[in-house]
Every structure is written in C-alpha cells, then in structure tokens.
Amino acid sequence: MVVADQNTQSTLIRRYIIRGSRTVSNYWWAIVTLLGGAGFFFTGLASYFQRSLFSTQTIAFFPQGLVMSFYGILGMCFGLYLWFTIFWRIGSGFNEFNKQTNQVRIFRWGFPGKNRRIDLRYELSDVQAIRVDIQEGLTPKRAIYLALKDKGAVPLIRVTVPCPVEEIELQAADLAKFLQVSLEMRNS
C-alpha cells in the first residue's frame, strides 16, 4: 500500500512512501519457516543420534531423518532469506513527483551490492499517462504504472494484498490529475 508523506504533500510536490518487504505477512512467514525448518532439522539430527525430541518414538535416519534434515536446512535458508529481505528493506522507497524541478523520482532499496540503490529520474514532460492494470481471479493483482513516451511503463505500485479496486483507482486518478495526464485502465 502507498502512504502519502504529509510533510512534503503540497501543490508542487507529491511523495508516496512504499513499504516494500516490511509487511506483516513477511514477518509471519519468516518466523514460521525459520522455526519450522529448525524443527525439521533438529528432528532429523536427533534421528541420526537415535534420540527423541518431541515424541516417544524415534524415527529411522535413513530415509526419514535424512529427508527431514534436508527439508529443515531448506526451510531455515528460506526463513533467513526472508529475514534478510526484511532487514535490508528490499523494495521500500518512495515515488516523488516534483513540479518545482519538473522531475519524477522513483527510489527503491535493492539487495546489497553495487546496485543497492535504485534511483530512477524522468522528466515530467516524458510522462504520457498513468496506467492501472487490474487482474481478477484466484490470485488478484493490481498495479499502477507510469507510462513514459518511448520508454515503456515503469511500475509505481504493485498490490498483491486484497484491496478494493476503488482505492487503487482513486490513487491513480489523484496522481493523474496532479500530473495532468490521462488515466488508462486495463482489466485482465
């Protein structure tokens, strides 16, 4: 979800804060996969030493204990990956539309390395339209794009959590009105 920064909200500058990977669901899945993976790993390890951790019966190391150890290692790796994306704030940043400098700035944090800071700048005159893509179905997706002349479309927001379509349309319409460009709607 996008939050407008009230400190810079004015008639000439609009700044929308993007939360990125620091969502409640990411915290939940990071905890569940890390603890679940650790449980599987230690159960497999206990079967190797012919000990029992959680039940009165031990399991055979080959093949059950070995497979549980393998899945435990995978679960812990995935859980650590989620914790690192949360810690590094992957995907968080802001979208700034500045009429004073006549620029659009899209900033996001990426993975550590030489391209950690993703900082895109475009002239306001290059903005052709604001495009809203709505895909309904089993996994609904909603996105707002900045359509640029001769440069394609740059995603501003991708909403994967259930959110009313009207709210996305309202945000896009408000932004299109501020930039004085057309609003394009695409339904899939």
Note down, in words, how this protein is organized.
- It is a single chain.
- By secondary structure, the chain is α+β, with helices and mostly antiparallel strands.
- It contains 3 helices and 9 strands.
- It has helices spanning about 25-50, 60-85, 165-180, and strands spanning about 1-5, 15-20, 95-100, 105-110, 115-125, 125-135, 140-150, 150-160, 180-185.
- The strands form 2 sheets. It has a 5-stranded antiparallel beta sheet, with no helix packed on it. A 4-stranded mixed beta sheet has the order 8-7-6-9, with helices on one face.
- Helix 1 (about 25-50) packs antiparallel against helix 2.
- The chain is elongated, with a radius of gyration of 23 Å.
- The two termini are about 20 Å apart.
- The mean pLDDT is about 90.
How many strands appear in the DSSP assignment? 9
Cα-atom radius of gyration: 23 Å
Overall pLDDT score: 90
Main sheet summary: 5 strands, antiparallel
> What's the arrangement of strands in the largest beta sheet?
1-2-3-4-5
Principal-axis shape: elongated
**How much strand?**
25-35%
Q: Give the CA-CA distance, first to last residue.
A: 21 Å
The DSSP helix count reads: 3
Residue share in helix: 25-40%
Structural class: alpha+beta
Segments where pLDDT lies below 50 for 5+ residues? none
Q: What sequence of helices (H) and strands (E) makes up the elements?
A: EEHHEEEEEEHE
Main location: plastid
Protein name: Photosystem I assembly protein Ycf4
Subcellular location: Plastid thylakoid membrane; Plastid, Chloroplast thylakoid membrane
GO cellular component, one term: chloroplast thylakoid membrane
